Amino acid sequence: MTERQLTIDLFSDKVGQTWTIDEPEAPPIELTLTAVEALRNFAKLAREPFSLSFTTRGDFVLPQRIYGLRHAALGAMALFLVPIGREGDVTTYQALFN
Fold first, then answer.
1. CA atoms of 75 and 2, how far apart (whole Å)
2. Is there a contact between 97 and 80 (Cβ–Cβ < 8 Å)?
3. Would you say residue 1 lies in a domain?
4. How many domains does the chain have?
5. Could you tell me the pTM of the whole model?
6. What is the CATH number of the domain that holds 27?
7. Residue 3, in any domain of the structure
8. Mind listing the pLDDT tens digit for each residue in 21-79?
């Protein structure tokens, strides 16, 4: 997995693109990046806080935890995903960076 600093600029042009869960014991579930949002920087951090929203389709909800993900251009990365909503067969997950 990459050790680069993840910033909002890295993801902002990737909305609509697909990430795949990339773990030895897990099926290759696809997640679509649906939103990249800046968050208020109350602590005046060097890296501006932001959030990513992803969706999946299916009759499952992934539990909250760190997932190994792979993107065609960005490669492998680990993100902590939290399920935040479900509508029909679409589940939304959020990753926060602060």
1. 8
2. no
3. no
4. 1
5. 0.89
6. 2.40.10
7. no
8. 998 888 889 999 999 999 887 667 667 889 999 999 999 999 999 999 999 999 999 99
